[in-house]
Amino acid sequence: MGSSTLLDKVWNAHVVRELEDGRSLIYIDRHLVHEVTSPQAFEGLRIAGRKVRRPDLTFATVDHNVPTSARHLPIADPLARQQVETLRDNAVRFGVPLFDFDSGRQGIVHVIGPELGLTLPGTTIVCGDSHTSTHGAFGALAFGIGTSEVEQVLATQCLALAKPRAMRVVFTGSLASGVTAKDVALAMMHRLGVSGGTGHALELAGPLIDSLSMEQRMTVCNMSIEAGARSSFVAPDQTTFAFLEGRAHAPKGADWTEAVARWGQLKSDAGATFDAEITIEVSALAPLVTWGTRPDMVEPVTGRVPDPKAAASEGDAKAMERALAYMGLTPGTALDTVPVDRVFIGSCTNARLEDLRAAARVAKGHRVSTRVRALVVPGSQQVKADAEREGLDRIFAEAGFEWREPGCSMCLGMNDDTLGEGERCASTSNRNFEGRQGRGGRTHLVSPSMAAAAAIEGRFTDVRQWEYR
Amino acid sequence: MARQPLRLHSGRVAPLRRNHVDTDQIIPKQFLKRIEKSGFGPFLFSDWKREPEFVLNQPKYQGASVLAAGVNFGCGSSREHAAWALQDAGFTVVIAPSFADIFRGNAIGNGMLPVALPDAAVEQIQSRAETTPGYCVEVDLERCEVRDSFGLKESFTIDAASRQRLLEGTDEIDLILKNERDIAAFEQRRVDLIA
To answer: Which residues of B touch A62 (CB under 8 A)?
Structure first.
């Protein structure tokens, strides 16, 4: 009986050699590049007179700072325009394929990678973005890197790395109606905290994970970085293979058959041991809402804003007080009475077709509250086209949601989609840090259906009670 | 490009008594649109600097090169701009009970030293920085020790590879490219899996 974890298997298959300093030289199969974290890396290559070693394994798109409206016009923000133009120049100069506005394939890196079949089981995938953990849903070792590492991968297609420890997170039970993968991710945050996964690669497993779609698995893997885990995995299975078959960059014909046979081996052996293991039971889970300025500051929508007096330590109490002051919340307030001003449905966490369907199902036949401005930003041009084919855009428009062009948008507010000082937002994104969506903006992380329901009610509401029309 | 080796650093300490300082605070997103590596220093903690009492607004911490912060420093976004901003603002060492993985790697890659010390030692350093004008620590990477003039002598652990990279200032790309033959052989061997 073998004793290897899934991490061991993918790691070992990519060791070019062991280095004298104790690290391993790891080969990178896919490098995703975007406009914000790459310009300095390409500049470094230019100064050193280096090339991109494997432009055929490098894929670029524009997502972080692009506008989500008026795409036919030049980008109005001169700095954003310069960054996008710089990526276009670098793509031409270094021979890197770029999925630009006119490609029909532009979108958030972590949405288009899987969509194009670039994300494959057992591969190593990096990107200068911490949410690269998303791709682990396919059984890839995928993690975010800094710009110096982007340059290293461009130049050498390798990284010198210390192997992470392996933690298995087993999810048991099944989800109640109205409770989603986003709530599972937030429940994991609640359990692990924002640093419980540091130094680890998480293997997400158990009957619940087996039952999730690929899009749902991506949502959970996406947020592992919020628990400190740079990467997280799900062992590939029939759900994975069914999602990938026929995708543009997925293997075809005999190669596909061979690949599926190989991918079927990518799971932890029965005798594998983990450095840490936890179990999370989800059957009693309610839809969750974050109340603070860290993703682990989260409670059920049926709950109340917690009291710093009940904190475990003085340090925790101070952090809670500061978070509540920033969020403009009083301890004891019922979360389903908290009013919202803005709603954002989008981001690499929740901007895929299933997410938009879930939100549209809630929105159908209702009207966005007069106090709320609500944005829906599809994750990619493909998601947008698919959603429009199903008529989701019309459902959203009739309900009073704005239907936008794809990009990261209000998840981090690098473009014009930002919160104003003191504005409160129900957001399907991944970070509720101070100022994340705009200076002084107040972010509450929720699922797409909870966000849609909040838009209509003008406050948080338990979507399990929703009146679907 | 090879870096200046970092063996011993002495400097004034600024105490940042916050846990889980995320990179969105270190360098807010509105400053990520530059295409250079330099010039991020003025935007370090830009939103927090709007609070007059914020530690880095206090004259007594001007010129500090050692930041003493709370647990999980540098969590969140992978933006290396956080390391560039700290360095551009004059910081060479960050002392904290723990660091987020991506920030830690970014710091080391830029020749900055993240020193993980026990909570009590960090608290002591923060307190002394608050009460002693001009309080400095000496961070010795060769002996893996932090010292001060009060007799503090706290050892820290750092993985051998990071220590070596900082001590020697080696360029990571040069180091990787020493293995060019192995990389090429790997590409030949694994061609079916890569493409």
So the answer is: none
